[in-house]
């Protein structure tokens, strides 16, 4: 073989590697399907999501983009969201947030990145091309035969090392998938909280409008009595003052509504001032509440943080086993043709190299380090379980307390406040009380209505916290608490009062 042929052989191999690299880097894979990854993280890491098109534009530099310059896939059309809906649905809002929020996309990208580790860690290292030439032997005037050697070498780790590395990558991908579920759960909780803030702002604005109409009616009554010389002009001035206060309150409530809308639109990844359908006029409070012990068990089984820690523990257990494997050598197998040997029979050669793991103290320290990391994760998991159970118990107690308070408002407080207002209005018309006492009755009625809407919202917020603490929807078929009905709540109150 001539020197030209030897260099030509090396050039062909280098060109093939370069062309392969160009083809591999010119395509960007779509996100893998998240459900399949939990079952088969190794295989799904090499699959594309159904219905998504591969991008052929190649890897591009990232810079600051304006909204108009964003890719079409990122610049989602918010005009079609909730199109034709007269009422903003909570389920539709949560689904839209999961589909559009950048935090969800970032978590899915991190999961996909973790899934791509598996084919890398189980692969053998690239084979090494070995060459050597003696240039002075190639000219025709040289008295020595042309001398060179060409060979290939492949490094092979000890049996089981690649398998353990692959299992570690799979468990890391599994942990990343649960991190994605945690982001999904957090976004759902944030959506619910913003939704309930929107509901409260709308209901308080509605109450404000009702109070304005009521005060205008009271003023008309006071004006009629004033013209009949039955009351002084002070009643009209007091009514005008109350109307001005209600107008000032309306400005503050409108600001609160704009803030709630901005929070929802931010979660939806669209303009903060985007118009939204109105929230419902009523929120139910009769959903059964499962037993606290059952919810704690559900939380331990379904909280994404605990599942992510369990996957990390599995990965770390494989890391301990891999550290133990380092006591065994790795091998390098070689084959070459060496023309430096004068005897042609000796020119074809095979060989093997291996490391000799004599430094056992270093490997023992590596094993102990992996074991301590495993112990740390197991302790963190136990601590996190305690925290989760505490969160569930506290949230469960808050839901029960708020639910009972809502029942009390509906069954006793609001009817009593309305009865008191009606009686005061009739008494003022009859002339048995003054205008200030009528205003006091209206103020008490308004305060109780606002307090009821706030307590109703607080109930749903606490239920959202409970749902977030459990990590999954409640099993409505499981054992439930003996939640008091409105009548039972009233009976409890009466018994407590008589006992006192």
How is this structure best described in words?
With 500 residues, the chain is of the alpha+beta class. It has one domain: Outer membrane efflux proteins (OEP) (Up-down Bundle). It is built from 13 helices and four strands. Strands 1-2-3-4 form a four-stranded antiparallel β-sheet, with helices on one face. Helix 7 packs antiparallel against helix 8 (234-267) and helix 7 packs antiparallel against helix 10. The model is unreliable at 16-76, 476-482 and 484-500 (pLDDT under 50).
List strands and helices in order, with pairings.
Layout: H1 3-25, H2 34-39, H3 41-44, H4 90-100, H5 102-115, H6 117-121, E1 128-134, E2 147-156, H7 161-227, H8 234-267, H9 292-302, H10 304-325, E3 331-338, E4 348-354, H11 360-430, H12 435-470, H13 486-499
Antiparallel strand pairs: 1-2, 2-3, 3-4
Helix pairs in contact: 4-7, 5-7, 7-8, 7-10, 7-12, 9-11, 10-11, 11-12, 11-13
């Amino acid at each position: 073989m001539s020197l030209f042929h030897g260099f030509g052989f090396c050039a062909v191999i280098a060109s093939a590697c370069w062309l392969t690299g160009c083809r591999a880097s010119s395509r960007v894979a779509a996100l893998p399907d998240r459900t399949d990854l939990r079952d088969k993280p190794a295989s799904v890491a090499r699959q594309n999501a159904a219905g998504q098109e591969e991008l052929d534009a190649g890897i591009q530099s990232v810079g600051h983009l304006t909204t108009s310059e964003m890719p079409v896939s990122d610049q989602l059309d918010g005009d079609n969201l909730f199109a034709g809906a007269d009422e903003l649905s909570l389920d539709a809002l949560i689904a839209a947030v999961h589909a559009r929020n950048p935090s969800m996309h970032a978590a899915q990208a991190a999961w996909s990145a973790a899934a791509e580790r598996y084919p890398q860690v189980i692969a053998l290292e690239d084979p090494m091309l070995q060459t050597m030439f003696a240039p002075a032997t190639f000219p025709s005037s040289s008295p020595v035969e042309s001398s060179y050697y060409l060979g290939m070498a492949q490094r092979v780790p000890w049996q089981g090392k690649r398998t353990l590395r692959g299992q570690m990558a799979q468990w890391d991908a599994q942990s990343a998938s649960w991190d994605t579920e945690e982001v999904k759960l957090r976004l759902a909780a944030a959506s619910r909280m913003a939704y309930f803030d929107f509901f409260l702002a709308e209901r308080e604005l509605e109450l404000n409008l009702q109070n304005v109409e009521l005060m205008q009616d009271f003023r008309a009554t006071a004006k009629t009595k004033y013209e009949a010389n039955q009351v002084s002009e002070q009643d009209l001035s007091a009514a005008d003052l109350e109307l001005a206060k209600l107008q000032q309150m309306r400005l503050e409530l409108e600001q609160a509504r704009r803030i709630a809308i901005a929070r929802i639109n931010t979660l939806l990844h669209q303009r903060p001032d985007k118009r939204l359908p109105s929230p419902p006029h009523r929120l139910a409070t009769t959903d059964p509440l499962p037993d606290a012990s059952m919810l704690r068990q559900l939380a331990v089984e379904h909280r994404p943080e605990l599942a992510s820690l369990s996957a990390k523990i599995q990965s770390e257990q494989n890391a301990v086993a891999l550290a133990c494997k380092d006591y065994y050598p790795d091998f390098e197998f070689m084959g070459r043709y060496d023309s430096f040997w004068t005897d042609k029979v000796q020119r074809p050669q095979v060989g093997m190299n291996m490391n000799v793991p004599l430094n056992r103290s270093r490997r023992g320290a590596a094993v102990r380090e992996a074991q301590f990391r495993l112990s740390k994760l197991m302790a963190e998991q136990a601590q996190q379980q305690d925290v989760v159970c505490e969160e569930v118990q506290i949230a469960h107690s808050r839901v029960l307390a708020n639910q009972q308070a809502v029942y009390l408002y509906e069954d006793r407080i609001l009817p009593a406040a309305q009865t008191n207002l009606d009686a005061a209005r009739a008494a003022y018309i009859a002339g048995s009380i003054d205008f200030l006492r009528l205003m006091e009755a209206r103020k008490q009625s308004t305060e109780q209505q606002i307090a009821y809407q706030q307590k109703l919202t607080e109930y749903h917020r606490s239920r959202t916290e409970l749902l977030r603490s459990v990590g999954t929807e409640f099993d409505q078929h499981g054992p439930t608490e003996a939640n008091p009905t409105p009548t039972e709540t009233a009976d409890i109150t009466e018994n407590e009062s008589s006992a006192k």
